[in-house]
Specification:
One of its GO terms (molecular function) is N-methyltransferase activity. This protein is α/β, with parallel strands linked by helices and 546 residues long. The protein is built from 18 helices and 16 strands. Among the domains are: 57 residues; 238 residues, Vaccinia Virus protein VP39 (Rossmann fold), CATH 3.40.50.150.
């Protein structure tokens, strides 16, 4: 048989993908290719960038006993990638709708999906696939998804009270479905028909609500021309240089002025504002440079002068899906009357905030700025330029951070668990977590497990859930990981032995927490020392005076 033969819909992987699958380095894969005559030959690509058939790679890894095993969720993802290489969003919709409607058609992906749905539910299959799609570097033709961190930040600003919500660039619907009241009227638009379809499907199955999402280019062909709502949220596409300015010169949405050709963001901002009802708000994600670019000064000035802008919030880097730069949130409110217009703008600088921590600004991170102070030649809306930072006491701060660092390092050394050498054999058959869940012995809480039986230790379960083998099962060829608790395997041990392991896993968790805190303190210590030494607040000690 020709080892290079493969079907047209075969999933292809690179050498880097194989390395991720097997949890080895790319150098190891290169060695396998040289040393093993039966290693699968490339079926496509080039000499410098060969592509291999995933099915052949799987079979070879199994024969070589490389410890490779995939969860059902990962197998479904790969099957979808093979059947829908150009649009995973369409594939997810087709599969989930077939599950929901109990369709008679069949495919490899649908067979796997039916197995998973029997173990969990159609909704859980949808949630798992959407999570993987949002985190995948290979989304096909769908690249319209706000990150979960950005959604959390916007939700904190927007609240959960709005009775009508609109998102003119809703993508997969993550932002549209996260804000507003549970029974809010939700509407949206997106240029990608598959993303729009998936957003509506998520509303129905994941959120038990409804959302009407229309397809089309929101700027060139507004599908909701007379639609006015209480809350508009928008994370505009970043690759939108040709937004249709020449076609929209006389458009009534430009209440603040015609956006320059290079200012697509200001076109999206005004489009969002055009859909606000009196008293309604628009919360729009903007680049940091939109706050000061000369080309947008006239529109910024008009927005401030009319009292439409109420807040500018600087967020940390790492929130956007398309780039790693910091972003701002601009909050506009449509006055109900002339006397209802804003007289000041709240500036918030959270650009140094912890991405995983609370997003509540401290007192020194915010300031209220009168409109007149913003209306200068630049109309610079960068929050950091309007917030007066307190003069730090470098010496006191440095001493405090050093003291805490010493305490944490002492505790860290004491927390490190003592472990003995094992025989690399845990022995006995392994239990599948899905069976424990089905029998009511274990509950899933997010990406963690909780024992409901006195025969199973919770810390033991969560420790083995993160084993290399279980992580490998839940990682796709492209490196996308999502905890798939049901497919995880646990060794069989009596409860006393489980508790011994559980205690060590608890200790490791505490050790990891303290290590992260130590790393934060090291960064603070170095920053304070360098700042103090270079501005005169700190000086080197004199050994003769100590």
């Amino acid at each position: 048989m020709d080892r290079t033969a493969h079907s047209a819909d075969e999933q292809l992987v690179t050498a880097a993908d194989i390395a991720r699958l097997a949890r080895v380095t790319r150098a190891a894969v290169s060695n396998w290719r040289r040393r093993h005559d039966d290693f699968p030959a490339p079926v496509a690509g080039t000499k410098s960038s060969p592509l291999f058939a995933l099915s052949q790679v799987r079979a070879w890894l199994d024969r070589q006993n490389k410890g490779y095993e995939e969860s059902g969720e990962v197998r479904l993802w790969h099957a979808l990638r093979a059947e829908y290489p150009d649009s995973m969003a369409r594939g997810i919709c087709d599969i989930v709708e077939a599950l929901r409607d109990d369709a008679e058609r069949d495919s490899a992906a649908l067979q796997i999906a039916r197995e998973l749905a029997k173990e969990t539910s159609t909704t859980e299959v949808l949630t798992a696939l959407v999570d993987r799609l949002r985190n995948s570097p290979q989304r096909g033709d769908t690249d319209t998804s706000s990150t979960s961190r950005l959604v959390r930040a916007i939700t904190q600003v927007a609240g959960k009270d709005a009775t009508s919500v609109f998102d003119p660039a809703c993508g997969l619907g993550s932002l549209l479905l996260a804000v507003g009241a549970p029974d809010a009227q939700r509407t949206g638009q997106d240029i990608d028909p598959h993303a729009a379809r998936l957003a509506q499907l998520r509303a129905e199955l994941e959120y038990s609500t409804t959302a009407e999402v229309r397809v089309g280019d929101s700027l060139r062909a507004d599908a909701w021309p007379d639609h006015r709502v209480e809350l508009v949220v928008c994370d505009p596409p970043t690759s939108n240089a040709d937004w249709g300015r020449e076609e929209l010169l006389l458009d009534t949405r430009w209440e603040l002025g015609l956006p320059p050709r290079a200012e697509a963001e200001l076109a999206w901002l005004q489009h969002a504002y055009a859909h606000t009802a009196p008293g309604g708000r628009a919360i729009v994600v903007m680049s940091t440079s939109a706050a000061y670019r000369r080309t947008g000064r006239r529109i910024r000035s008009e927005m401030v002068r009319r009292g439409l802008l109420t807040d500018v919030i600087a967020l940390p880097a790492g929130l956007a899906s398309a780039h790693s730069q910091p972003v701002h949130l601009w909050v506009l409110r449509r006055p109900t009357s002339e006397s209802d217009a804003a007289t000041e703008v709240r500036m918030v600088d959270m650009s140094d905030a912890d991405l995983e921590g609370p997003l509540e600004p401290a007192e020194h991170q915010q300031a209220t700025v009168p409109l007149i102070d913003l209306l200068d030649d630049l109309v610079d809306l960068t929050p950091a330029h309007h917030i007066v930072q307190p003069v730090p006491d470098h010496f006191a701060e440095y001493q405090a951070v050093c003291d805490e660092l010493r305490e944490v390092l002492d505790a860290l050394a004491q927390t490190l668990p003592a472990l003995a050498e094992g025989d690399r054999d845990l022995g006995g058959a392994q239990l599948r977590v899905g069976e424990l869940i089905d029998n009511g012995l274990v509950e899933v809480a997010g990406d963690k497990l909780r024992s409901t039986s006195d025969q199973l230790d919770t810390d033991f379960l969560n420790g083995f859930l993160r084993s290399a083998a279980n992580v490998r099962r839940s990682t796709s060829a492209s490196g996308v990981f999502r905890t798939d608790a049901r497919s995880a395997r646990m060794p069989q041990m009596d409860v006393a032995e489980q508790r011994r392991y559980g205690e060590v896993f608890r200790t490791l968790d505490e050790f990891e927490r303290q290590a992260k805190r130590a790393a934060e303190l090291v960064s603070q210590t170095v920053r304070l020392a360098r700042e103090g030494l270079t501005n005169g607040a700190l000086v080197p000690t004199d050994p003769e005076r100590e």
